[in-house]
Amino acid sequence: MAGADLSRINTNVAALNALKALRDTNQKLAIHQLRLATGKRINSAGEDPAGLVFAKRLESRARGLAVARDNVGDVQNLLSTAEGGAQSISEILLTMKEKILQAANDTLGTEERAAVESQLDDLAAEIDDIVGATLWGGQQLLDGSFTGKQFQVGERAADTMSFGVTQNHGAATLAVADSDLDVSSAATSSTALSNVNTAINTINTSLQNLGSTQLRVGIKEANISVSINNQLAAHNRIFNADMAAEQIELLKNSLLQQSATAMLSQANLAPQSVLQLILG
Hints:
The protein is mainly alpha-helical. Helix content is 68%, strand content 6%.
């Protein structure tokens, strides 16, 4: 800062110095006022170029993870839909087993066996109805066609997981259709019981696979939620203003502004003292 010489009045260096200090203070004051008004520490790239880049990267990742979390939620709903259908089929198969066990006993007569056969046929038809009605996005989930599906479960292109239901759960495929179950005698009932037991094992395997996938997806969702929180916390620290600190700086610069204004006024009056030399 230039030194002031009060004996030279053509250029008031002291006033210029005071004016510069006032301008600097006003500039700082404006920055802190803007930060308090917007809540942001970085309001333009020129304030902190590197910090802005870091903050934008963190924001991009956090927003991408938020969408990925929504995707994971959709996958969970899809899996729950498939599981619900499989659970219903499992209950039907258990009911079938109970009825066939009754038919395997020679205490039943012809009419009773016919009634059991009719109920088994209805249950088999219901299995096919469940398979047809278990849909997601217009796609059937339990007919064996829902295969090779890929889901985006992260914010990077490589953050994907594959899933599919390769087993067809239709009554004919499970060998529990009308033509597969004959309970007209104890011997044929034994064969039908074997078919149903095999179908039960098949549906249990499907439920296990669905459950394992649901577990994985649940872990991914929890991990994504933690990552989002961490990204937002880092972004907040870099990009957003510390309101308490900004308030302190605002008060400090407000006082400096008042002081610099007073000193500028005094500096403007100082050269008048030189007139005393002239006026005697």
